[in-house]
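In response to the reviewer comment on reproducibility (Comment 2.3), we provide here a single inverse folding case reported in full, input and output, so that an independent group could reproduce the run without further information from us. The structure tokens appear first.
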């Protein structure tokens, strides 16, 4: 925003004295450095990705101090912007390692090759600038001649012109090198405010008072951040110069029609169930939306809206809403539409009432003179009962009507115009399967009789049957969701090795390392919520892999109830999963569905918070047999091959353990080089 010269004099001092600020002509960024140094500014901004700290290969340039200065960037004589100049002071850190076996190989190297310690030093210095609502990162290339390279001594500074900033804002600046050898420098600065501007609020009324003399001419831009509710009319009254014409006003909402902004907003929105009948839409700001109930049957069919008999309801962000339900049901879900497009869908009652049930929803419609009709909601539509159609509900229509009359169906909603009933279908499925099993038993008995008559071929048939059973069990392996805290890249490789080893067993392993694309598209919370629900619905197990970072996050959640900011990456599903994992432990639903584990020499099981020790916690690889036994189906018999499988997993895991606890180039404990190494003397 253009800043007049008189405005700076008012903002930067209590007395009306014009401060002398340096003027920069032009709109291009620039850089310059101390005498003797050479520097270059990249043409465009870069991504702000500091990366991990790596060991320095020798002497390196490192930022040691940040210094800032206010300047003016002027495109014209009266068109200037306030700018922040940043100076980065650099020093030489580290030292050259002495060459090994120099005497053994005949002294110094060929004198025709320049020694590295006599060469110049180069560095890529990153400046990261953040001031709401902007953030930038620029890259400066600096080269120091060999004559100025002195270990531990400052070599000069490089200056960047400049970051645009607003009066009264708080700016934060970080500086580090690529690659990063040391912890980044950071500097926070509060830019001068406007002492002649006073803003106060009384309810929805905002009072703005300007104390400026009549001789001054200025332009004022107001930024209105409307976070919730419909647009409000803005009323103003000129109390300073009543005879002067009103100033020019412009109303700009740049993101109102931006589809990307709407997508980001809906990705941050969440539905929360408060009680059995009340819920709310949690979103960062106001959204035009409407919601209705839908019925979701197991099997992957789309959720069918219950409109009619129910109707769409307008939704207000962060306001408690209620549906006229008598009872909750796991198959009931909430759909939220905006601009005639489905934006959110959550089965809010599934967490408290369990997984989806194979129930049939009956819609009762009441007409005049006490006439009523019933239909069963199916993917193809609502099938009238009784009916001669070929659908499942039509074939069982007589039994469903009997269950409704005998009170075996659960009434979910009741109104003068109709009602909703949920009728269980499990017993009819069990009857059908009983006939199937009876037929299988008769077939098995006949087959056994034939095999007894042909003893020569009996062993071959039994061997083939045993192989088929084993292959079928492997194909239907139990689902396992592996959760961990991404402490560092080495630990992620260790988790990947464990997941790959478990996949060789009759297990279907899910881990965020293998689902980066889905995790980025859905967000960590939504991705974990879907994986956890699918795993538990299939009778699987959730494995909590504890590490020092995971224990710290769990302790922080248990103390504060919310996770604070940390240095975790955008794909850290463990941090996002705690909001769903903790209720299972607090409400006693974790045993049988959760298992804990940690690695030997990395974490002792006693360090795991007591709340999470209500489920078994195993140390790996020392307790691999018990760990694999806990991952089997709950009623599956202990196989004699369990020790063999544990040995197989241990062999696959050992290289990753050795690489994590003994990185390349460091000898293992108790080992050495040469005679007598490791003898303890």
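Designed residues, in position order:
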């Amino acid at each position: 925003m253009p800043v007049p010269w008189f405005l700076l004099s008012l903002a930067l001092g209590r007395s009306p004295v014009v401060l002398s600020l340096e003027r920069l002509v032009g709109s291009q960024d620039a850089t310059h450095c101390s005498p003797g140094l050479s520097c270059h500014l990249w043409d465009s901004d870069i991504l702000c990705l500091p990366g991990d700290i790596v060991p320095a290969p020798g002497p390196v340039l490192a930022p040691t101090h940040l210094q800032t200065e206010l300047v003016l960037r002027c495109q014209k004589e009266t068109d200037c912007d306030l700018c922040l100049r940043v100076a980065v002071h650099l020093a030489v850190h580290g030292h050259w390692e002495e060459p090994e076996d120099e005497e053994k190989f005949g002294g110094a190297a060929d004198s025709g090759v320049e020694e590295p310690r006599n060469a110049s030093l180069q560095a890529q210095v990153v400046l990261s600038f953040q001031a709401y609502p902007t953030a930038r990162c620029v890259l400066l290339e600096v080269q120091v001649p060999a004559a100025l390279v002195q270990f531990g001594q400052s070599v000069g500074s490089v200056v960047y012109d400049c970051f645009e900033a607003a009066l009264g804002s708080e700016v934060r600046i970080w500086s580090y090198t690529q690659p990063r050898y040391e912890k980044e420098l950071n500097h926070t600065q509060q830019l001068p405010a406007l002492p002649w501007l006073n803003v106060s609020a009384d309810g929805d009324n905002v009072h703005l008072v300007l104390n400026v003399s009549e001789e001054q001419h200025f332009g004022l831009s107001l930024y209105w951040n409307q976070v919730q509710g419909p647009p409000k009319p803005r009323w103003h009254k000129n109390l300073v110069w009543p005879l002067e014409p009103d100033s020019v006003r412009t109303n700009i909402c740049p993101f109102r029609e931006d589809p990307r902004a709407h997508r980001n907003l809906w990705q941050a929105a969440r539905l929360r169930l408060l009680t059995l009948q009340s819920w709310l839409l949690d979103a960062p700001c106001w959204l035009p939306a409407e919601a209705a109930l839908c019925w979701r049957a197991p099997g992957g069919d789309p959720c069918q809206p219950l409109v009619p008999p129910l109707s769409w309801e307008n939704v207000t962000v962060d306001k408690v809403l209620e549906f006229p339900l008598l009872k909750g049901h796991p198959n009931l879900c909430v759909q939220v539409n905006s601009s005639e497009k489905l934006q959110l869908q959550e089965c809010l009652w599934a967490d408290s009432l369990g997984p989806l049930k194979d129930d049939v929803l009956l819609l009762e419609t009441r007409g005049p003179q006490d006439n009523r009709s019933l239909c069963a909601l199916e993917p193809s539509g609502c099938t009238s009962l009784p009916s001669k159609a070929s659908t499942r509900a039509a074939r069982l229509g007589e039994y469903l009507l009997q269950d409704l009359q005998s009170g075996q169906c659960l009434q979910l909603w009741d109104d003068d115009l109709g009602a909703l009933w949920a009728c269980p279908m499990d017993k009819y499925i069990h009857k059908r399967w009983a006939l199937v099993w009876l037929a299988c038993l008769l077939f098995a008995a006949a087959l056994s009789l034939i095999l007894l008559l042909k003893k020569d071929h009996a062993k071959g048939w039994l061997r083939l049957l045993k192989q088929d059973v084993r292959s079928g069990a492997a194909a239907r392996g139990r689902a396992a969701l592996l959760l961990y805290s991404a402490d560092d890249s080495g630990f992620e490789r260790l988790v990947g090795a464990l997941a790959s080893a478990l996949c060789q067993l009759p297990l279907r392993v899910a881990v965020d390392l293998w689902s980066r694309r889905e995790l980025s598209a859905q967000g960590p919370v939504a991705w974990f919520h879907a994986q956890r629900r699918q795993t538990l619905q299939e009778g699987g197990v959730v494995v909590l892999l504890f590490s020092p970072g995971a224990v710290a996050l769990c302790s922080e959640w248990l103390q504060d109830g919310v996770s604070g900011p940390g240095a975790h990456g955008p794909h850290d599903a463990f941090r996002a999963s705690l909001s769903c994992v903790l209720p299972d432990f607090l409400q006693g639903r974790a045993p049988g569905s959760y298992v804990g584990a940690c690695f030997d020499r990395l974490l002792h099981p006693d360090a795991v918070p007591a709340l999470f020790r209500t489920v078994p916690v195993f140390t790996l690889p020392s307790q691999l047999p018990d760990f694999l036994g806990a991952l089997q189906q709950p009623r599956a018999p202990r196989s004699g091959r369990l020790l063999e499988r544990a040995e197989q997993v241990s062999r696959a895991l050992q290289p990753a353990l050795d690489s994590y606890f003994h990185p390349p180039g460091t000898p293992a404990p108790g080992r050495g080089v040469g005679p007598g190494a490791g003898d303890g003397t």
